[in-house]
Design brief:
By secondary structure, this protein is of the alpha/beta class. 40% of the residues lie in helices and 13% in strands. The longest helix is centred in the middle third of the chain and has 25 residues. It holds the Pfam family Glyco_hydro_1.
Length: 441
Amino acid sequence: MEFPKEFVWGAASSSYQTEGDRSGRGDSIWDEFCARPGAIRNHETGDVACDGLRRFREDVQLLKQLGLSAYRFSLSWPRMFPDGRGEPNRAGLDYYDDLINLLLAEGITPFVTLYHWDLPLALERRGGWRSRETALAFAEYAGFVARHFAGRVRHYCTLNEPQCFVGLGYGTGEHAPGLRLEEPGLFACAANALLAHGLAVQAIRQASEDPVQIGAASTGKLCYPLHDTAENRAAAERASFLAQEDRWWFTHTWFLDAALLGSLPPELQGLADSISPEDWQVIRQPLDFLAVNVYNGTQVDERGEYIERIPGFPRTALKWPVTPQVMRYGPRWLYRRYRLPMYIAENGQSCNDRIFLDGRVHDPDRIDFLHRYLLELRECCAGGVPVKGYFHWSLTDNFEWHNGYDERMGLVYVHYPTQRRILKDSAAWYARTVRTNGRLL
């Protein structure tokens, strides 16, 4: 058994986590956040990161060496528009022109994410996601991007994980801009993110000369059953979309229900009430695919009760639980609710990788993680769920937000003092999986 014919195999990255070259762009909220004492482990920043802006040609060759057919990456809004609006930055455009042209020349399809958390600081100082202005500015930016890259970029994601940049950025304060808003303020951020998404979809379609595929990258709680019975499966599906009062923002429900169904469940009435009837018409836009970021899930019993994890439960270096079963069931629940084909836009494991005495990077834990998750994803596809592709997070090690650089998630090891790239054992394993379309799993 293998994955469907024409299955897309790729890897992913984001601008702030990899590009570096802070001098070539405007400041983002992450530049300001990283400068705060105690905000980032070891006081690290994304000022240099993987030096991706200067080394993108090498990284594209790594994609080609792995046999990948697609690369998902984000544009830096402050590199394109240093103040968020106004005149574009020519140097930023030149960089993305060069990257996209090289990808196409090598037969690699660009999947472009418009926003992966690096909001221009100038917009944050005018309210950030608390302000409707940010949604309007995002629509201008999206339309410009679609016009500029017309004919070259045919796959767009509007926002990456609004659950995180709203909840962690404006709710818990763990991420930039580090605010802890009460519920009305958090509802306003979520409403403006939804409006930004809808306006961006409209702007991209209006600006595109050729047909384009548009989605949004969502994450959140997904549940899988303790027992594979009809009753337990139904309970796991219901639990996946319940919005808990204190963590409502970490659900697919608030974003995808609003964007695709044009409504919200009763437990999210406060958010629904913060959106005007006129904005609801903008927010609900037809999409071509879902992009789903899946790392772990929660097991539930027939009553929908969460199963407590035993001591010593397998976890990644970032302490995220290893739950491959979620890859079989989670996409199924999402498809049943939203009826769209999907890409697994992020999946991977953090490890404390190091260079061994033989000069190589051996990462058997990551190989085992990928093997288990991809086996489950293959079963999901075999069950009729239209999963169109898989993007490993990430291509290279990178800046892992408030955790800094200690934990590594790449297929490619980055020796940060020299920026030397080393293919890990998992890269060879993944390349073989790609080459055989998962037949040898």
